[in-house]
Amino acid sequence: MSSPQTLSKVLFFFYTLFAFSSTFSIALAQTSLVLSLVLFIIIAIMTRYNPLTCLPKWFYLFVAGYIVWLYFTGLIGPRPLISASISREEWLFFAIPIGAYICNNETYRNRLLTIFSVGVLLISVYGIIQHFTGIHWFRSKPLIPARDFGYLVSGNFSHQLTFGNYYATASMFLLGLAFPQGSAIGNRRRIFFAVSALLAAVVTLLSYSRGSILGIIAGLFFLGILMGRKYILSIIGVLIGAIILITVISPGTWNRVAHNLKREYNLNDRMGRFYIWNKSLQMIREHPVFGVGQGNFYYEYIKMIPPDSEERMKHTHAHDDLLNIAAIMGIPGLVLFCGFWVVALGTFWRGWWQTKRGNPYRHYFAAAFLGSVAFFTTSLTEATFADEEVRQLLMFIWAIGLFAWYKTNVSNEVSVRN
User: Is the overall model pTM greater than 0.90, yes or no?
Assistant: First the structure.
């Protein structure tokens, strides 16, 4: 029978493969995470390890309540079996305690973050090549041409919005590892993280996803706050420089932005965000307590729009995480969803301000907070939490941030065996 030490090494391998492959393949990433979960359960049983010790109490209570309510509202809905099947993606929450456990080993933690950064860098380079050449390896569907020049970057994902949201979140997470004052990370690794973050931000811009770009802007704004007032002006300067660069390289960008915003604000445009949000609010008003159930948004939505609507106008989600959760789970579900978000963001925010400069775990709070801010910003115009490719990245980021909480707040630490 294998020892816990050997199993921990295998667990590290598969979890690292999960983080690395999440940058380009949901199939490989989730297969690796399944194997990680099996190994983690075996190790926990053999060593009597309690996985809840690495999470704030209110966090896992809100998550547990959210999952229970999600299944309950689905089971009392019109398609209970379909709802239960779709709700299986909530197993991604297991990535948090697994990652927090692995990070107790400093060697494992450093290698995990470095290998993840390598994945981000490689696919970012691939994305830049895509933009200029239109190459789309391993996909039969060609890239969408950009209006002025090049192609909309999607990496190895099926859609440029998913790609943009993933890489905006990854960029801000890595930036948080690279730049906070008093970081315990060595200069070489900080430079490497910064380069990966920069390239991820570049390909996010080349995806032409407005929500993803807003995620980067929000992340940079909060980076300025975390680093101090004097850095805010530098951040503003970077943003102004980016605007000038975009204007020079792609002068038609702002005309497209104005055109798209005009469409989004049009309550009569069935593809506009305001139209979709208005119908989603109507759905919430009609089902305020239990919602419509997981997987039923589409069937309720098509009842609210004109029967002559094209298929592309029949949406499967609300294009906003908060509205989407409220629509499928009711207001109680929204409260539970906001609950674990508030705990996570509050933990990372307090962790940064309450730990002293030079604390070996302080930069993890910054990274987790900035990555979460970027993710949440993208979710204001897209149901990002329902997108498994990006959702699994958020779980990985929260694992890092909540590990830092564990190390700075819990005295009885449990270390991964070497």
Answer: yes
